[in-house]
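Format notes (please read before filing issues)

Several people have asked whether sequences and structure tokens are stored in separate files. They are not. Every record keeps both together, in the order shown below: the sequence lines, then the token lines. Line labels are part of the format and must not be stripped during preprocessing.
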Amino acid sequence: MTLSADPQEPDSALQLLARPGFSLVLAYRIFAMLSYQIVAVTVGWHIYEVTRNPFSLGLVGLAEVLPFFCVAPFAGYLVDHLPRRRLGMVACSGLVMTALVLTAVAQGWLPFHGVWPIYAAIALTGMVRAFLSPIYNALFARVLERTQYARGAGLGAVVFQTGMVVGPALGGALVAWGGKGVAYGVAVGVSLIALGCLAALRVSEPVHTGPAAPIFKSIAEGGRFVLGNKIMVGAMALDMFSVLLGGVVAMLPAFLHEILHHGPEGLGVLRAAPALGSVCVGLWLARRPLQRNAGRVLLFAVAGFGLCVIGFGLSSNFWLSAAILLFYGAFDGVSVVVRSTILQLATPEEMRGRVSSINGIFISSSNELGAFYAGTMAKLLGLVPAVVLGGFAVLSVAGITAWKNPTLRRLNLRDLH
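Then the structure lines:
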């Protein structure tokens, strides 16, 4: 495994951050993530506080992933055919609306009872999230040169995971200090900041000439492109099945209550630990972009991810669990950077929205679908057996991918330039 800087990539990470357009795109990403992560932590605690049922935590994931699946293909089409900056502002407005609804539920301002209004708000979040990543990926390619993509992907991963570090910790602290209503209210504020970043962005948009292709034909074209690229579809499938089978984050409220015996502040620490590990990896890869033996590095990282899942399931010590989740996030961070770089380098400009949406269906939704799977397995087998079994399943996925997809195993990123 070799990590090496690309001699054809002259700009340093600091020089990229000095570009106003790139900085605003990154700011949009981190503030949107802050909003989403604060809401995710608060909703998990909110639901478990009401139901005391791990299965209800899985239903949170299902309530988000089903609308995501329905909207994502059309979101990609719209990103490829409408002004991306304005579409992003509409999506950020959706985040504001979701947090406002949840604030009203927590404060008792709505004449509804039970958990269904919470699930309805999460369903709206799923629809909004279908737009966030395609918009980011499309704008990313407009504010950077192609030779800057690998280093920019590392910085993007750092910013993304920083949002996932700060968001959960902030969400847990806000719930412990001011209650659920305060946490949801802060999510409203950071959503508005994300919207403001896009409002201030000045970027050229692709010029579309001639009539737009029929929507379903256009979506199918994007699907054929992805499925025809063995490297891209292999990386997406590897990450999807790993997160689907090995995700433990959705079960953290139950682990805290039943095994680790900590309150909401502990939830913030455990939710932040994986993201902190990813940030450390992203900073390294932004400084020294991965070029050679990227496929092997990716496969070893997924295997390490599976071992961490097993270790977390067997741990009964809070700080040992937090340390394991730190490495869990570091291994996942390698996958994020490699996959993001493949996506940017291998995708034609006119297909960025559709390909990014398909990537979202493979990857982003696997977190929520994995939450439903984890909740179901925990109810059937118990918390610890379900998580440990998932870790062994991830190891199997890494082994099968290495065997069945030699093109991905032999991947060098410099070959995609």
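For reference, the curators noted about this record: The radius of gyration is 20 Å. The longest helix spans residues 20-51.
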